[in-house]
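FORM 7B: Structural annotation worksheet

SECTION A. Query
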Amino acid sequence: MAGLTAFFAAFAGALLAILLAAPLPFLLLKPVFAWMVRRFVKLVMSEPYNENLWEMMTALQHHPPRIVVENALRASSPGVLERPFGSPVKRMDFSGLVFSPAQLSVLPAPESAHVDLRLTIGPAADKPLKLELPILAAGMAYGLGLGERVKIAIAKGTAAVGTATNSGEGPFLPEEREYARYYILQYHSGHWAKEPETLRQADAIEIRLGQGAIASAVGQIRPVSIEEKARHMLQLPDNQNLVLPSRHAEIKRPDDLAKLVDKLRNLTGGVPIGVKLAPGARLEEDLEHIVRAEVDFISLDGGEAGTKAGAPIMEDDFALPTIFALVRAVRFLRERGVKDRITLLSGGGYSTPGRCLKALALGADGIYMGTSLLWAMTHDQVLKAIPWEPPTQLTWGSGMLADRFDEEEAAGRLANFLTSFAEEMKMAVRCLGKTSLKELNADDLVALDEWTGKVTGVRLATEPYR
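SECTION B. Predicted structure
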């Protein structure tokens, strides 16, 4: 007992000594720190601008740090600069819209009411694709972008909640098809993943004409950016770039699209055939050709969309913002009388349940999400990379930490994320006094400013409901 008392006494004494000694370095360094601050302030306040360090502050306001760094990267290498995750430029989005809650004149739905979130892609197709959720995993390429473990995790996570994943423009990964419950195969302008036996494994086929982050630019994927297994699947020499042409060999003029749609429809036995494009000023002209081709769905990828690597000029200065493209496409399809037959999928910048639900109220049938899914499913696995490496080193197929990515954990996180999204959307639908996504429309929204009201056709918050 005496020994135990002596131990605690010694421990308490040591702890007290540490607490008393801790402030000493600060007290000793305080005069030095104060001198440095006074010296710095004096120099800043007295030196002429051309000799003053404060020059950097005003320069960085004229040219933001992002521009300075990107120009420095251009100066370090003569090649095209590649930037991940799309454009950081702020565009008009859905934040100028709010939902109008049901309370008395319109009663909210009971909290126990079932809310129908189901989506049918290609309702007129021989084999329509029926999903439990209107949120889909966007096209993200295996091997050219994401690693095999990440693609399998997305397949498992989407399968768990009854929605679809999209192959992207990479080589066909059999394991992704095996674990995916619903699989959309992207038919791109490259020569790979187009074998009849591959196409017949798809639940839907998406003809890729362009995408929001890179428009229709030719893709030049360097060998260092391609996963080794994917390079063998592509039969690509180690020192050769992979080229994704800007145009399909089968489409030499607009009318050729219809021939390709018919070919794929016949080959696959009637699964939905759609087209993916980046919206531009001639959106309605492009949509007219697509409608004439009798597609089953349209994937519209707005300017806020992400990618593994895109030139800043393509990400920042091409493609209409998502909300503009969505509103114009909905209007066009309704005027043509095909909105109920052709499913409209919208992608580009979606990151919250509210933003997705606003798009659905404006007329989208389903929402593609990419970047947000990656961040959600990676979750605290980012700690395997930071602070010394960016988290993408876990998810890129060519990343130095790709073998440390836990696909089972990520699949569970993704399923949680999508389920949480769905529950929030159900709550919101009930608060609108409705029980199905099909009941939503623009009358459920209010515009907070005139420009948003003009773009979307939604009434202003300053106007009474009529």
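SECTION C. Observations
The first helix runs from residue 2 to 21. The radius of gyration is 27 Å.

SECTION D. Sign-off
Analyst initials: ____
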